[in-house]
Design goal:
The chain has about 375 residues and is of the alpha/beta class. The chain contains eleven helices and 15 strands.
Length: about 375
C-alpha cells in the first residue's frame, strides 16, 4: 500500500479503535499551553484531535503530499490558526520551538517493519522538552507457535499444487521465507502461551536492533493435530494507561499481525519445548530460527526475493560499483538541473545524449520527472 495516495491513509484515518485510544491518551496530557508535534501526520487526524482538545500549537509533519489534505481538513474544521503543516521528513526540517507532546504512528506491522522509529528517536532528542510526553510511549513484541493450516495452505503449500496444469513448485522456496501480513490469523490455534520478544521504551530507546530468543512449552493439544505451521507475531503499545494490541484474536486495527512460516510444518507434542530465535538489524531482513529436540529450521526474508548472483554481488559491502549508462543519464540530468532548463527541455537533451535509453520523448520526460521529483 502506497502512502502517496489518499487510499493508503484511509484505513488509518478511519481506524476508530486506534484513534479513540490516541484521543484518550491525548485528553490526559493536553493543556491550553501544549505545543504538539504530530510526526508522520498523514491526513492529520491525531494532531487535529490535539487541537480540538485545546492545544495552543500543533505542528503536522509529513513527507508526502497528503499534508495538503491535512491542511485542508485543519482549515475546514477551524484550526488553521493553531495548526501548521510542514512537508518533509523530520530530519530535513526545522521546528521553530520545542514541544510538550510528540504523537507518532511509527510502529509498523510487527513493530519494526517500516523502519520509522529512528525518526521518532531523532525528534524526541531534538524537540521534546524535558518532562515532555510521547504518545505512544513504548511497545512490546510478542509471538506464539500456531497451528494455522488455512494460511499455510493458501500461501505456502499452494505453490506445490499444479495450476492450469503447470508445476509452480519452484515458487515455494521463496514463499516459505516471507513474512505474511494483511492475512487473517483469526482461525489460528495457539500451541503455547504467547511470550514477549522485545520491549522498547520510546523515551530511552536508541536502536531498533532486534535479537531475542525465547522458549515455548507446547500445551495440551486436545483434538488439534500436533503440527506447528509457523509463528504468529504482533505487538502491543502503550498509550498512557491503555495498551493497544494487534494480536490475531483482538479486534482488527490498521496494523496487522504477522505470520512467520515453517516449511515443512514441524510435529510437536504436549510438554515439548520449542526454541524460537528472532533477529533483525535496522533496515534489514528478518531471520527466525526454530529448534526442537527432533529438528530445526532457519528462515530469512532475504531469501523471499529471487536474486541472481549478479544482484547479490551488487549489495555486498565490498562491491565496487561502476556507473552504467542509465546512471550517466541521471548524472547528466541532475548536473543540468540548475534552474535554466525546463523538464521538457531536459527530456529532449537527455534523449539526444543517450538515444539508446529512450524510445520516445515521453519516456525521456518521465525519466526526468522522476529524478527531479526526488532531488529538487
Amino acid at each position: 500500500m502506497s502512502y502517496l495516495h489518499v487510499q493508503g491513509h484511509q484505513s488509518m484515518t478511519f481506524d476508530y479503535r486506534r484513534n479513540q485510544a490516541y484521543y484518550d491518551a491525548l485528553e490526559k496530557v493536553i493543556t491550553p499551553d501544549s505545543v504538539v508535534l504530530d510526526l508522520g501526520s498523514g491526513a492529520g487526524i491525531h494532531g487535529i484531535l490535539a487541537a480540538k482538545l485545546g492545544a495552543k500549537k500543533v505542528y503536522l509533519v509529513e513527507p508526502q503530499d497528503i499534508i495538503a489534505v491535512a491542511n485542508q481538513i485543519a482549515q475546514l474544521n477551524g484550526f488553521s490558526d493553531r495548526i501548521e503543516c510542514l512537508k518533509g521528513k523530520i530530519e530535513e526540517i526545522d521546528l521553530p520551538e520545542k514541544v510538550d507532546v510528540i504523537i507518532s504512528v511509527f510502529t509498523g506491522n510487527f513493530l519494526l517493519e517500516e523502519d520509522l522509529l529512528p525518526s521518532l528517536f531523532y525528534a524526541r532528542d531534538k524537540y521534546l522538552k524535558p518532562g515532555g510526553v510521547l504518545i505512544p510511549e513504548g511497545a512490546v513484541m510478542e509471538a506464539v507457535p500456531v497451528y494455522a493450516p488455512e494460511i499455510y495452505n493458501a500461501n505456502i503449500a499452494a505453490w506445490s499444487q499444479p495450476h492450469m496444469e503447470i508445476d509452480q513448485s519452484p515458487g515455494r522456496t521463496y514463499a516459505s521465507q516471507a513474512i505474511y501480513y494483511r492475512t487473517s490469523l483469526s482461525k489460528a490455534k495457539y500451541l503455547a502461551e504467547p511470550h514477549d520478544l522485545l520491549a522498547m521504551d520510546f523515551y530511552q530507546a536508541t536502536s531498533t536492533y532486534c535479537q531475542t530468543q525465547v522458549n515455548f512449552t507446547i500445551k495440551e493439544l486436545g483434538e488439534e493435530p500436533g503440527l506447528c505451521h509457523g509463528f504468529a507475531g504482533w505487538f502491543r503499545m502503550q498509550l498512557g494507561d491503555t495498551w493497544l494490541s494487534t494480536a490475531p484474536h483482538e479486534p482488527a486495527l490498521h496494523w496487522s499481525p504477522a505470520f512467520l512460516p515453517l516449511d515443512p510444518p514441524i510435529e510437536v507434542t504436549a510438554g515439548e519445548e520449542i526454541s524460537f530465535k528472532l533477529q533483525r538489524p535496522p533496515f534489514g531482513d528478518w531471520v527466525w530460527q526454530v529448534k526442537t529436540s527432533k529438528t530445526q529450521q532457519l528462515r530469512s526474508t532475504f531469501f523471499s526475493t529471487p536474486r541472481t548472483i549478479k544482484t547479490i554481488k551488487k549489495i555486498a559491502h565490498d562491491y565496487q560499483p561502476q556507473i552504467n549508462e542509465k546512471g550517466k543519464a541521471a548524472m547528466y540530468v541532475l548536473s543540468h538541473s540548475d534552474g535554466t532548463f525546463s523538464i521538457k527541455e531536459l527530456g529532449h537533451y537527455v534523449k539526444k545524449e543517450y538515444p539508446q535509453l529512450f524510445s520516445s520523448s515521453e519516456k525521456a520526460i518521465d525519466f526526468v520527472q522522476n529524478l527531479v521529483g526526488s532531488f529538487s
